[in-house]
Amino acid sequence: MNSIKKLASNWLKLAFTFMLLGTVSLQGIAQQYDLLIKGGHLMDAKNNIDEPMDIAIIGDKIALVQKTIAADLASEVIDASGLYVSPGLVDIHTHNFYGLDPRGQYSSGYSAIHPDGYTLPFGVTTVVDTGGSGWRNFVQFKEQVIDRVRTRVLVMLNIVGHGMKGSLYEQNLEDMDPKMTALIAKQFPDYIVGVKVAHFSGHQWQQIDRLVKAGEMADIPVMVDFGGANPALSLETLFMEKLRPGDIYTHIFGGGGPGREALVDATGELRPFIKAAQERGIIYDVGHGGSSFQFKHAIPSIQQGIKPNTISTDSHLSSIMSGMKNMNNVMSKFLNIGMNLQEVITASTWTPAQVIKRPELGHLSEGATADIAIFNVLEGEFGFTEKTGIGKMTGKYKIENELTVLSGKVVWDLNGLTAPMWDE
């Protein structure tokens, strides 16, 4: 009898164990997502989404995007009701090769900035450093900065081997080596997405020819900051003869002085070739910077049908303290001067990702890396300047980033969307 009782007891324990295991298993199945963003208005140009949708994340990937996903399926839920949800922003003109070289400027110098504090709080998850390093010091940049920060940092090599160390270095045609630039670009394809020339002064075209040669050899786009010449070099020649479709002209709303032509003439009329160049495939990039954006060029250009392909900051130590400020501020300007919200988001996500040939970025497809920005569009009366103390305009709308997800992890939460109340 005792043996029967013991056997029955063992069976009961075993049954109870299986019951517990079944409960744990069911709970595991129930909470199949790590993070769920519910109720937000998704804006995803690649997938033609502009409506409320939910996003579920497993690990560092987007697992599911659909109209409604049950909250009890996720370990953590973010209520994005009343907010917009977009891919992580892609800023293709920045300066992040910071360092302690007193003569380095944007190449391991004091003028460049650590990216994380000026990217993630504003929904930017990917940046492109444009020209800080050249073929001679890219590896230093990678080890010193890229490998040590959270923001995804990609690179356009400077055609000058020493990078953007200042005017004297950037005038050196002998250091503009297409072969060496292309070799380094091919050696580090996961990081290098283009080649740039900047700040060259003079009337020759050798700097542009060497730039484009490097781009051809490495099969990557080039970016031109046109430098200066008096009288100014021809934008028409640059756009229609020198650059290839897919190449990038930055600071599109700068110029207008004796050294560089603007897109519009002195009366505010578009130069006759500007539309044809964009139709040909020349990429117009904002590259706001500290002094490379003027309302008198931007507003009439947009009114006459020229909108930037890509919105970027040209962030560096002085621009973040002047009229540029941050990516959200630059985007807000365009929201107030003639671009709608979908256009602004597209020019800050999917289009720049395509321009730098990184189609895995800038969208919210299932299976994509979970880089996400959750933001608000405030309404009121806001002021925007070209640079500190110069060129103010007022606008009704201002974009404010609320929360940033980088590779599936919340890295910025402005108002505590992910935090419980302290007394609960």
Describe the 3D structure.
This protein has 424 residues and is an alpha/beta fold. Helix content is 27%, strand content 25%. A 7-stranded parallel β-sheet has the order 8-9-10-11-12-13-14. A 6-stranded mixed β-sheet has the order 3-2-7-15-16-17. Strands 5-4-1-6 form a 4-stranded mixed β-sheet, with no helix packed on it. The model is unreliable at 1-9 and 11-28 (pLDDT under 50).
Which sequence of SSEs, written as H and E, runs from N to C? HEEEEEEEEHEHEHHEHEHEHEHHHHEEE
Overall SS class: alpha/beta
Strand order, sheet with most strands = 8-9-10-11-12-13-14
Largest sheet, if any?
A: 7 strands, parallel
Task: Give the termini distance in whole angstroms.
Answer: 54 Å
Could you tell me the radius of gyration in angstroms? 25 Å
Shape: globular
Helix content: 25-40%
Q: Count of helices?
A: 12
The tally of strands reads 17
Estimate the strand proportion: 25-35%
Question: What is the mean pLDDT?
Answer: 93
Contiguous runs where pLDDT drops below 50 for at least 5 residues:
1-9, 11-28
Can you give me a brief rundown of this structure?
Helices cover 27% and strands 25% of the residues.
